[in-house]
Amino acid sequence: MIHRKSLDGSTREADAARGLRKAAVVATVAMFALAGCAGMTDTQRRTATGAGVGAGVGAVIGGAQSGGKGVRNGALIGGALGALGTYVWSSRMEEQKRAMEEATQGTGVEVVRTNENLLMLDIPSDISFDVNRADIRGDFRPILDRFAQSLVANPRAMVQIIGHTDSTGNDTINNPLSVNRAASTRDYLVARGVPIGQIQIDGRGSREPVAENTTSSGRARNRRVEIYVGESAQAAAPMQRQVR
């Protein structure tokens, strides 16, 4: 888990919201991974989708009841109700983490293994997007090139890309802009050989800041893309059986 120094109550609230968001991402990636498994019937896919919804609801309930402190418990409750599986941290995931740490060294990108065995990349705006733009900056391209290679090498990994904005402008502008940033990132990866079926996108507008929007540096931190990568235990099971 990423630990950030709390400067005031607003920052602590942002950190709590970040935890809630991460729990919801776990649910969404799980739903995406299960629903996309080859060989599943339509009924099984609908069940997987319902499982993801159950986990998301559980996360929201848990977070709301304890001001964000119960986010992880809420996600676990929701996952149990929805019959979700767990994630594995395989050698492929470890290799992805090492590769991305090398590719992002000195860039300000955070590469973290979460407690849920997800790989998270937090990409700040100074290398990703300019103000009010969804075009990928040149500094971002080498990072995405290496990330695409790691995904092609690990076809079992499912990805969720979440775009964010600062509070400049209103929701009419920020919401589609955040989606467009996630879509630009996805399209860049797909153009480099990553199957589009591995990737899901979302945009959160300015609703989930990680810093104060009252300063230029804080707004820059809030204009970002978060990428989560997960390998479900269900997807890993066939390979494990073959190895045995």
Write the CATH fold name of the largest domain. 60s Ribosomal Protein L30, Chain: A
The coarse overall form would be globular
Strand order of the largest sheet: 1-2-5-3-4
Please tally the helical runs, counting DSSP H or I stretches of 4 or more residues: 8
Given this structure, which CATH class of the largest domain is correct? Alpha Beta
Overall pLDDT score = 73
CATH architecture heading of the largest domain: 2-Layer Sandwich
Can you tell me about this structure?
With 244 residues, this protein is of the alpha+beta class. It folds into two domains: 74 residues; 153 residues, 60s Ribosomal Protein L30, Chain: A. It is globular and about 40 Å long. The longest helix has 27 residues. It is 52% helix and 11% strand. Helix 1 runs antiparallel to helix 2 and helix 5 crosses helix 6. Strand 3, helix 6 and strand 4 form a beta-alpha-beta unit.
Features:
11% strand; 2 domains; 8 helices; disordered C terminus; 52% helix; 244 residues; 60s Ribosomal Protein L30, Chain: A; single chain; alpha+beta; 5-stranded mixed sheet; disordered N terminus; 5 strands
Short description:
The protein has 244 residues and is of the alpha+beta class.
Strand and helix map with partners:
Layout: H1 9-35, H2 42-65, H3 71-82, H4 91-103, E1 110-113, E2 119-123, H5 141-152, E3 158-163, H6 171-190, E4 199-203, H7 216-222, E5 225-230, H8 233-243
Parallel strand pairs: 3-4
Antiparallel strand pairs: 1-2, 2-5, 3-5
